[in-house]
Structure formats: C-alpha cells, structure tokens
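Thread: nicotinamide-adenine-dinucleotide complex, take 2
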Amino acid sequence: MAKTFKNFIAGEWVAPSTGTYFDNRNPANTSDLIGRFPDSDRQDVDAAVRSARQGFVLWSRTPAPVRGDVLRRVGDLLVERKEAIAAAMTREMGKVLAETRGDVQEGIDTAYYAATEGRRLFGQVVPSELRSKWAMSYRRPIGVVGLITPFNFPLAIPTWKMFPALLCGNSVIIKPSEDVPHTVHILVEILLEAGLPAEVIQLVHGRGETVGKSLVEHPGVPVISFTGSTETGALIGETCGRMHKRLSLEMGGKNAMIVMDDADLDLALEGVLWGAFGTTGQRCTATSRLVLHRKIHDRFLNRLADAADALRLGDGSGEKTDVGPLIHEASRNKVEQYVEIGQDEGAELVTGGKVPGGERLKQGWFYRPTVFAGVKPKTRLEQEEIFGPVLSVIKVGSFEEAVRVNNDVRYGLSSSIYTGNVDQAFRAMQELDNGITYVNAPTIGAEAHLPFGGVKATGNGHREGGWEVYEFYSETKVCYVDYSGKLQRAQMDAYEV
Ligand code: NAD
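Output below.
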C-alpha cells in the first residue's frame, strides 16, 4: 500500500483542505506507485502564507551567520543521505543514478555556499560628500518568498532557490512540480531536522494551475521565483507585473553545440552524446541543435549515429543504463509529435524516432535517442523546445554562419563551441547570445558558485546560483548618519571647502 503524503503548513504535516490526492508514479515503470500527494488548493496556500508571515518575523531577526549555520547542517545531512535521496529521485524522476547523485551534490554545494554567505552578505560603506556624515548600504530580507519548481532537477533547483532565500532571512513557501513531489518532501524533512524553525518553511503540493497560480496571485507573497517553461513563465510574469512583485524567471532553451573543422572530434562526440541525451534531453541546457562545419559534417554524423544507436535505455537505477525514460506520457507524446514535424519539414531521420520495443521498456515512458540531419534553420524542429532526446543537426560553412544559427532562436540559455582555435573561442564567448557559453565542453553542467541563467525568452535578467542570487532575495537599504549636529544639504552644502 503506497504512502499518503501531506503538506507542511504552520509547523505541521497536514492533509490538504480538498481531501484529495494525486498519484506519483515511477516513469520507468508506471505500475510502481511511489505515493499519493496532496492535491491542494487556494485555502492551503492562504494558510501557508499566514504562517510564513509569522516565520518571517522570527527568521528575519535571526543573525545571518546563525541562519548560515542551519544551512551548513542541511548540507551535512544531504552528504550523509546522498545515496538514499539519489535513489528516491531516480525512482520518481527517471534519470540515471549518476545524475541524481550529481543533483544532490549540487544541493550540497549550494548549502555550503549559502552557509558561508551568512558571514558576507556585504553592504557598502562609502565616503559621504558631507562632513561628519556616514553613508552606507546593507541587505535586508524581503518577506515571504514563493518558489515554483520544475520536474527535471527535483532537488538542485529547489535548493538553488530555497537556500539563498533562507540565508537572506526570508520565509519560504515551495510548490514543487507535481511530477516529483517526493524529493522536496525529503528536503523539507532535512531542513526541519537541521533546526530550521517550523514556520520559516511551508510545503504545499498540488497542480500549477491551482496551487502555483494561488501563490503567484497572493498579495502576501512579494517575491516569486519560477523555473519552468517559457509559456508558464509568461503567465506568471503578467500577474507579477500587475502586482509589482519581484520575480525571477528561468525558462526554456534551444541550445546549440558548434563543432568546427579543427575540433577534437572524439571529445566533441563524447560531449554531444552527454549534452543531447543526458537526462533524456530533459535539461533546460540540453544540446538540442548540433551545428557542424561542412568539412567534418559527414564523418562526424556517421560516428554520432552509431554512438546514439548504441546507448542503452532502461531504469535509471540500473548500473548499465545510459538513458532513462521521459517524465510522463504527455512528454513522450510531445517528442513523437516533433519527430513527425521534423519528417514533414523534410529533415532526414538518421537514427531513433521510435518508442523502443521489449516488455521491460514498455512499462515506462521510453523513447529512442533520435538524430535528425539536414535540419534547416527557421524550421519548427530547429526553433522550438522539445525537451526530449531529439537532436537536430545543421550543416554550416563558416564560423559566422554557425554564430548566426546559434543566435537565431528566441531562447538564449547556453551554447557551446568545439574548436582548437583560441581566437575563435574568444570570439564565440563574445558573439554567442546566451547566458552561458562552454568552450570544448557540451551545453550542460553548471557550478553552484557561478551565476546561472539565460537571455531573451529564457529569463528576465536574474540569475540563480553564485553571488548574484543573493541580490534577488534581499533588498538594498541605504542609511545615512549625520553626526555634524547641524542641517547639511546634499548637493548644496557639499562643495564648501
Ligand atoms: P512547467 O512550466 O510545466 O512547470 C513548472 C512548474 O510550474 C511546475 O511546478 C508547475 O506545476 C507550475 N505551473 C504550471 N502552471 C502554472 C501556473 N499557471 N501558475 C503557476 N505555476 C504553474 O515546466 P516543467 O515541464 O516542469 O519543466 C520543463 C521546463 O522547465 C522546460 O521548458 C525547461 O527548459 C524549463 N527549465 C528551465 C530551467 C532554467 O534554469 N532555465 C531549468 C530547468 C527547467
């Protein structure tokens, strides 16, 4: 009998006000029911906001180094339980164990970074233009922060948002993706065990159109951080704009890897397999387009087709699995639809393009790694985010053309170039219009201590990770102290010598 999970609201594990639940199933084997999770609604969000406001009063007055110390303990617990969390994550999300271990490691890195930030959170002291006057800025917490997260990084993305938000002194309400609710349940248990005061964290499970929407529309939540599709982000942006909320959006991608004629082709082959088919192509940074210089095009494509064909599909917990399932049926349907679109547009299906056979793989949402060649710029296959194991190969004749192809999409998350030419590498870093560019490495993979995010329809100018995210979760306040004992007027009395 599968377990029934609860929300965490006002310091207690509670059933949803609706009394209804949804199933969370293993995407590699849909007969494996992981648990039933609350199908909550607006009332649950209201209760969470009321409590989070209390939590904010307490937590915002807790010294930042003490807040950091709680996050250090969270990091320690994540280290201790890394293997068990990774196994639970593979079961609900599908990606292979090596990747879910990496997902937990990203949470650990983010926790330890946050812990040390508690002793920084720098403000500035600058010289005043007036005599006997002190001028400075410092960072204050903002209030209740609403976090809405996607399915593909069940632990890492919640921690990217939650840890800096908490370190800055905010209280947090999280609505995880309904596809991976179990991992965040585990994370909240760890936060509580590490000593986070109960009302500082609230967990409300449920659907985006109900719980997510209620959180975004709630006047008691001044900050929203969202990662997910560009379509959902646009809806959230409209509401937040109208309500003057602070909003961070991390959204879709259509990332390209460029392989020039002087590249190390062995390295590039390894890179594109990982970039395109790691996480079954379900990464915002996934390599979705491969831009090949015409001089190496045919040679590289042949090797790529064989290597993609040899990838082993299976349950992510299996030692020999290279590629896990897609997250759910709708996702696989979308992939199938794009394979049809590609063929209709005249692209050549080189390998894949089908649901695999075999009893074992029929139990989950598997799809063969797929490569299309002869993909033309501006076609739907080349422009739209698929979020699955489908790679489009585009042939180009020059570096300039490769840059044009890379830039000519509405997204701008990551890009990559394989080249042995240092001048070209530096030009690429300047000219590729993305938030991240990799040289001689695929489009995926981020380090927790550097800012992460994209331009154009991928983001709205904010970044996750690194130091920049601390600016998002805190408000700058400026203070002047005039100890001259007389009225001094800025800009007017300043320049008397
Ligand atoms: P999604 O947009 O379907 O859902 C994301 C979250 O938003 C979920 O928790 C969902 O319940 C919620 N949601 C849905 N409708 C909502 C609404 N109307 N109001 C408020 N919340 C709502 O995305 P997904 O399928 O979970 O994730 C895949 C997408 O996420 C891809 O487009 C991918 O590129 C993107 N992504 C981006 C990044 C990044 O950093 N740029 C990282 C990971 C994933």
